[in-house]
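Can you give me the bound-state structure? Components:
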Amino acid sequence: MSNISTIISREYSTRVKKRSFIIMTVLTPLIFVAMFLIPALIMGNEDKEFKKIAVIEDGSDLFKGVLKDRDDVDFVYLENADAIELKTTFEEKGYYGILYISPVVTNVPEAVQLISKKQPPLDLLQYIERSLEQDIENQKLLAYNIEDIDEILKSVQTDVSVQTIRIDDAGQTKETSTGISMALAYIGALLMYMVVLLFGVQVMRGVSEEKNSRIVEVIISSVKPVELMLGKIIGIALVGLTQFSIWMLLTFGILTVVQSQVLPDNPKEIREQISQSVMSQVPTGQDRGVTEQTIQLSAQEEEFAKIYNNLMNVNWPLIITSFFFYFIFGYLLYASVFAAIGSAVDTDSDTQQFMFPVMLPIILGLFVAIGTMENPESSLSFWFSMIPFTSPIVMMARLPFEVPTWEVVVSVAVLIATFIGFVFLAAKIYRVGILMYGKKISYKEMWKWIKYKG
Amino acid sequence: MLLLQTENIVKQYRTQLALDKLSMTVPKQSIYGLLGPNGAGKTTLLRIINQITAPDSGAVILDGHNITRNDLSEIGYLPEERGLYKKMKVGEQALYLARLKGLSKQEAMSRLKEWFTRLEIIDWWDKKVEELSKGMQQKIQFVTTVLHNPKLLIFDEPFSGFDPINASILKNEILKLRDDGATVIFSTHNMGSVEEMCDHITLIDNAKSILEGSVSKIREEWAANEYDVIFRGEANVLSNSHYEVLKSSIENGKTSFRLKTVGDIDINNIIRDMTDRGKVLSFNPALPSMNEIFIRVVEANKNKLSKSR
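Here's the bound-state model for the whole set.
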């Protein structure tokens, strides 16, 4: 036992001290955070510069005054302007761009053009489209000469946004977001795929390094081959767990700091208000008072609060614990296969023929996981989350959509049983393989090694 | 007093019999040579003693008991296929290997410093292994093999890769370890070092032991009535009916030659006859070199095997 811990500590400390490990450990959370933040920053930072837009109509004045000025945009309606001349001179005249509206716009949607030097921001385009659409609709309705049309229009205006609420067996309701579940499924499955492969391949490299540098026979004259193999596998697992824990801490740490800097000023209060309103809304239906309060929140804040609320409703303990379990056992299963391969081959190029059958279930798992995000309850997803070689990846994709506990338990149990079996087989191949040089190894050969005794 | 015995060890690989009822006895505090052509089964035998491979049948007895894994800390093994972690620092690595043999960190550290200083390699302590030459790496491997003061040392081809200076340093260290009480088994193709160092040998060929015993006895047994003579005097000494001359050279009036006696004759008569014709400067029995014995024994075994087939 003391031998195996000596081996583990070497495997661990040589890897953790490597410069590449330190760089990877620090950089990856930064990349994660950047992935979260860059879209948010782009949205928040869209050009706030004040714009003056010239509005020109082709021979009519249907849309005069339709486009209301905003904080950052003034719409200047130019009557009888020369569009062709203005095209060349609008910049000198201090305009951001020209909005050119053709009268056929009521029938041809493309009849509106915004001419500018720069790419206009998306929300400006949406604002223009919405305004024009509404006006055209109104005008069309007006053409029917219905009495009190304004009143009617106001009263029929509705806004629908579907809230998904899941009811569990105990009758508890919970607001969920398919979007967030999908994102979690994707991140979980992809992360699992990455770490299993990343650290599994490290085991293979380590074994084949020991074989090729010819140190292995020196070591197994002191320790059993299986101790050396397990020491390496466990050592690298600890490296993986260390790295992963640091990633999580750093990512959450950086996100928290950045959040308080970049996102709404007092998100906490908003969160509380919103969660109250959501709570009370769900059981009783409409509660005017609360709704009114919420209406005062800006759309962005509301959106944020909603995401936050949904995030809070995710079963984090289950997902994180499961991730660690599936990582540990999924990794152990693949690592033992990788160790066997590393021991059997002499050169890296020989690993190719054995890598393919190992990669196949991993990649298959990833594909099924992606399919799972679309359709979490399919029987394909169910079976692949039970089969040990794909279950770590597929189950990570299923978990955010809530999986019965017994399924998780069975899937982990099958995984553990398979891993024990494979460690046993791998140890047999490993024991023979590490001392076998200059021989091209086939599957048949490996099978014979498994059957060797002693 | 025996330290190690192997009894009727059989090891069958799939297509080939690696060891066939191999027995050998290694006396305590001796240097034991394991000789034999490539592929004869030497490395397999050494691996069996180190419990890297298990024999199909037969026993390995160390100090009177069947060998177990606990005995591994009493054995130092330098395999033929040997190496070090290339990216690891020399000192760290030596420490790691010593700890696997059961030494405490402090103990390993102080012994390593002592050995490294003595072999003048202490400057390499913080270097990475990949920066060292092959010979330097061999020195480090040697130190890590003997560091835990094992009572049995096993070297598989210890001198391959060493320059003559370092090889002689290594030889002296091995002799010293023997004098300090260790028993040494080594396999080698270098017959010169066998004559120099070994007390006993076993010659393995085709999985079987075909020659065993003390080196001096074996050489005497294989001596075939041949004598090396240096003589000053009449040149007709080279023609004589009592012996035939195998090779000769004349330099500065001295005739050096090897003779082989013919028939059953007392060598005193030959010497007497020579002293009548001149001065006998030297007259020595010509012991065959281990090299010659090796070749002759293996060739003979080959003929025997091909005949029996």
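A couple of observations. The beta strands of chain A are 51-57, 73-78, 97-101, 112-116, 164-167, 173-176. Chain A touches chain B at residues 2-3, 6-7, 10, 14, 209-210, 213-215, 217-224, 435, 437, 448, 453-454 (CB under 8 Å).
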